């Protein structure tokens, strides 16, 4: 099945960070909202001694809030890309809030996936050069 979002993601990734920031600040639904704290709901704690199922339920509820807040936003993809670029250099404990319709742990997973893909690409390029 073809990825219908591939053209959108390609065009978003091609934009400069400065352009992404400008678009999000100008067109984001969260900008100028009466309730900015809505984008920073209390995150479910990972280490509370609760069951993994309970944590999964709390995370699912948080993720649903993220989708509700950002679902109709016209620059959701741009916001997510901007968040990934900005948060890649941050310590894990500094990544909070809802951005681009995602929870912090979702963005951290995306960042790790990108880093692994870049490492595989670099390793493949190294093998191609030495061959």
Automatic annotation (TrEMBL):
Residue span, 4Fe-4S Wbl-type domain: 29-109
Source species, domain of life: Bacteria
Protein name: WhiB family transcriptional regulator
Species assigned in the record: Sphaerisporangium rhizosphaerae
């Amino acid at each position: 099945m073809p990825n219908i979002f591939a053209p959108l993601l390609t065009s978003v990734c091609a934009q400069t960070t400065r352009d992404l920031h400008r678009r999000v600040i100008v067109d984001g639904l969260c900008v100028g909202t009466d309730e900015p704290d809505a984008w920073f709901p209390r995150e479910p704690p990972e280490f509370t001694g609760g069951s993994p199922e309970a944590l999964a339920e709390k995370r699912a509820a948080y993720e649903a809030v993220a989708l509700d807040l950002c679902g109709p936003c016209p620059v959701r993809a741009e916001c997510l890309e901007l968040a990934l670029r900005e948060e890649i250099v941050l310590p894990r404990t500094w990544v909070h809030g809802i951005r681009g319709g995602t929870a912090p742990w979702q963005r951290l997973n995306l960042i790790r996936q990108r880093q692994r893909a870049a490492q595989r690409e670099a390793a493949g390029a190294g093998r191609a050069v030495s061959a």
